[in-house]
Amino acid sequence: MGRRRLGAGAAMLGMVATAGVVAAPTAAAAPATVHTADFEQDTGGWSGRGTAQVAPSTAQARSGAQSLAVTGRTDTWHGPALDAAALLPAGSWEVEAWVRLADTTPEPETDVVTMSAARTPTGGSTAYDTVAWQVAVSDSAWTRVSGTYEFGTANSGLELYLESPDPTQAFFVDDVTITGEASGPVEPGTRADLATDFEDGLGGWVPRGAAQLAATTTDAHGGSTSLLATGRTQGWHGPAIDVTDGLALGETVQVSVWAKLAPGQAPASLNVSIQRNRGTATNYDNVAGASAVVTADEWTELRGTYTLGAALDQAQLYVEGDAGVDFLIDDFALAGFAETPLQDVPGLADVLGADGFEHVGVAVDQRETVGRPAELVQRHFDAITPENDGKPGEIQPTEGTFTFDDLDALLDFADATGTDVYGHVLVWHSQTPDWFFRDGDRPLTDSPADQALLRARMEAHIKAIADHVDARYPDGDSPIWAMDVVNEVIADGDNANPHDMRDSRWFQVLGEGFVDEAFRLADRYFPDTALFINDYNTEMPTKRVDYLDLVASLVERGVPIDGVGHQAHVDFARPVEWLDDSLTAVEELSARTGTPLLQAITELDVSNSKENNGADVSNGTVPQHSPAMADQDAAETELGYYYRDLFQMLRGHSDSIEAVTFWGISNGRSWLRTWPAARPWESPLPFDDDLQVMPAYWGIVDPAQLAPRPADELPPRIAGTDDVASDSTSPAGAEVTYALPEAGDTRDGAVTADCTPAPGAVFPIGTTEVSCTATDSAGNTSNASTFDVVVTPPATETELYQQINNGPVVRANARQTVQLVVQFGNRGQGALLGSSFEYSCTQTAGPALALDLAPGSARQVGNRDYPAGQNGNFTLRARPTQVGQATFDCTMSMTDSLGAPVSSTTTVTIDVRR
User: CA geometry: angle at 137 spanning 133 and 141, to 5°?
Assistant: First the structure.
């Protein structure tokens, strides 16, 4: 694929680009009229608050023919209300309404009306603000009720309303107007340092969600007082503070807050995040590096850096973490950060480009379009991937409402700097709003009508993105060179779906064909873009087979697929040979089908945790992780050698690999630092928290710069394997010979797994768990990996029957023993095993009565087997004490000579008389 030419913006920004920094747009909102209502057609968006009823009326009108009649009030706060949360961001607003009382008596009437606002800051409690206080109104003329309403918070709810101290007063409203302007964005160079030590109170901190905050002197990091957060029912609940004044566009700040769990709490993950609000848009960012596992034993510093990448109206910093955990914080500080200059080292794109990799990319958001991060992007990468800003939930959060601002900022940056964009993602099971898969409140099914609806939604989503991009780049020179069309469609384990496809809502409604449909639509609307399928764990042998099987099917059906993506979220003990085999398998598929398939490493990072769970973010969280190596410096050196081995292997596939994309610009910005729990030791990328090169960088660029390799202390990895199924050959089960799972690591290559029970063992009928470990040449032993061997008997040829010789109704006398003779036999082929005989009777009606096998009956039946035509009998016994009819379902169970279960149930009634 050829490199795209520079966009028109590059020449205009040429001087800036040479410095490595591109400034984000900072246009502020202008004064405007945001709402008018004259009630000539409808209620204009106004509704009744409390019991109040509102409706257009011709009884009175200040202008035109109608006004809004307000009736049915039963309390002072009842009245007409307007949901203004989406209309009014933080700013200054002039609100005007004209009011006239209803003429309900012969005498002149007067009253007062107040204009109020119920404002709920995001994560906070509702406040009630006054816009205009008790304006005198009458039934003889229209009166202007108006005021200036200013606020600086981002709000989850904002309701304007009119009220009166007379709880039953009826009135009319007309000609409502709201004008004003939102707060301007934070401009570069205007920030101030912030700090709180809680010695004089909460210091501006407020509760977020259900959290409850209180100053406490029971413990403190400094001084005598800290802040205690309790009542947290969700992870995002906790203490929060407005930091709008502490941030400036393109400037990096350092955030520090000390945390400690309340007494009696088990260790838990905590991290610092920032919520950004701009107009009606809300974004959430982690503070890079500010995460840790915190205990109740000592204070832990949550420290990291944050670069504001886009203009905002309001910013709130908050401490969050595991739900339900009570914790203390103290000594918060947000201050300017002395950034270290970027090192003058070879650019990754230059080095790898010379090795034949056409695109060397990095996943970013707007934080990487300003300041030093933008400089690093332009120095080392020639492509970017929107980390989250192109996902379905970001682009179309509600049906028909498209939000492109965040994606546009990245496209603008790319166009201005001549950087290519790898789009991510059109169709995905995760981060896709629920409305895609619902018709109102009803979940979609696989009915033809529902399938048509979901296909239409898929097309509308893809088309809207394409139309938007085409409108921004009418010359066809969009920076988007490639696109993940579908993402993560293969399950990690075996299931009943074709190719073991993930049982997502897309699959449940449309089946396998949703992948075909997505690619055909992407080809229609993005005709000049390389179209990729993308998945994680594609290096795992069993998932590799499923993934390539699906890709082969797409090629066979003529689906317009251009490339295969391998996310490569790996860990530094996972053998690079596994990914090597997967890349080779795609190349062989291309040769076999005659359809050239590009390949891309789409989301590369290398974990140095002991646990590695892939990248299935929809699978929920898992328990705390731990470092794989105790010495962090040694771990980072080992990561350098892993990158050396990985890229040595990748260079061998450079003819088919079109792109390599790193999933994050720095270790501090890596998702591994915070998901699924705090992992402050993670160093998965070539650049550290301060954007300085890591051993991982030198492993790619010049391995001679690496320190000596540390001793081998990483255990091998065992590839997961599907369960094994077998038919029994006798009642004892079956001898099952299974293939050992693949095992190895990057230093030893392949090693042999040791599994118990071993291959060739006799497995009983049912499910047996096999546990496997592997040991390398240094004596490191892996954690156990398990799979199931399921042994089932073949279909039986026998037919068990039973009958009560006394008939279905047996007469008996109270307080006398009654015996029932049961005859049974085999009316089929094969043989029933007497040793497997079981019998039970369950009472279903009548007075309580026990019906059991007579002594010796089980031994009598079990003495021999029952081939075709053989019969036998045994006795049941009961001693009734009450008159009535007692009914039983009696079930006889045996197995045949191959272990297949066989049963027969009959019903018998004991009619008890005196």
Answer: 145
Exactly one of 488, 546, 690, 745 is catalytic; name it: 488
pTM of the model: 0.72
673: left (phi over 0), alpha (psi -120 to 50) or beta: alpha
Helix locations, 719-781, DSSP H: none
Rounded to whole angstroms, the Cα distance separating 3 from 7 reads 12
Phi, psi of 177 (to 5 degrees): -140, 135
Is residue 371 within 8 A of residue 250, CB to CB? The reply is yes
Token code pair at residue 644: 């050396």
CA max distance for the chain:
111
Find the helix or strand (DSSP H, E) in which 554 lies.
helix 541-556
The answer to whether the bond into 425 is cis (omega within 30° of 0) is yes
pLDDT digits (tens, 9 = 90+) for 451-490: 999 999 999 999 999 999 999 998 888 999 999 999 999 9
Mean pLDDT to the nearest integer, 358-365? 97
Q: Is the pLDDT of residue 618 over 70?
A: no
Question: What is each CA distance from 741 to 536, 542, 571, 717, 724, in whole angstroms?
Answer: 19, 10, 18, 10, 12
Residue of 495, 502, 498, 586 lying closest to 548 (CA atoms)? 586
Q: What is the DSSP letter of 63?
A: S
> Could you confirm whether 603 is annotated as catalytic?
yes
| Cα distance between residue 147 and residue 144, in whole Å | 10
CB 521 within 8 A of CB 458: yes
Q: Among residues 709, 689, 3, 686, which one has the least CA distance to residue 345?
A: 686
Looking up tokens 């705390």, which residue turns up? 624
Burial class of 602 by CB neighbour count within 10 A (0 to 12, 13 to 18, 19+): buried
335 - beta bridge partners?
254
What 496-502 contacts at long range (C-beta under 8 Å, 24+ apart), as own/partner pairs, is 498/550, 498/553, 499/546, 499/547, 499/549, 499/550, 499/553, 500/543, 500/546, 501/546, 501/550, 502/429
Active site residue 535: yes
* In contact, 639 and 685? CB cutoff 8 Å: no
- Whether 410 and 366 have beta carbons less than 8 Å apart is answered as yes
Helix (H) or strand (E) holding 634: helix 632-651
Q: Sign of the CA dihedral 591, 595, 596, 599?
A: negative
pLDDT at 120: 84
What are the structure tokens assigned to 712, written together?
A: 């081998």
Helix (H, G, I), strand (E, B) or coil at 884: strand
The residues, ordered by sequence, that sit 6+ positions from 640 with a Cβ below 8 Å of its Cβ are 694, 695, 696, 697, 698, 699, 703, 706, 707
d(Cα 605, Cα 64) in Å, to the nearest integer?
A: 65
For residue 63, CA distances in Å to 136, 394, 802 come to: 21, 43, 92
The question of whether 459 is a catalytic residue gets the answer: no
- What size, in residues, is the chain? 914
Collapsing DSSP states into helix, strand and coil, what is residue 315?
Answer: strand
Count CB atoms within 10 A of the CB of residue 612: 20
Active-site residue, selected from the candidate residues 109, 251, 322, 603: 603
Residue 808 CA to residue 820 CA, distance in Å, equals: 10
Distances, alpha carbon 258 to alpha carbons 216, 271, 292, 293, 301, in Å: 15, 11, 11, 12, 4
Report which secondary-structure segment, H or E, holds 648: helix 632-651
Predicted local confidence at residue 149, as pLDDT: 87
Instruction: For residue 544, give the DSSP letter.
Output: H
- What is the three-class DSSP state of 592? helix
Alpha helices in 735-893 (DSSP H): 857-862
Q: Residue 79: enclosing H or E segment and its boundaries?
A: strand 79-83
DSSP letters along 840-864, please?
EEEEEESS----EEPTTHHHHHHTS
User: Can you read off the two tokens belonging to residue 856?
Assistant: 């010796």
- Catalytic one among 535, 539, 571, 605? 535
pLDDT of 648-703, one tens digit each? 999 999 999 999 999 999 999 999 998 888 899 999 999 999 999 999 999 999 99
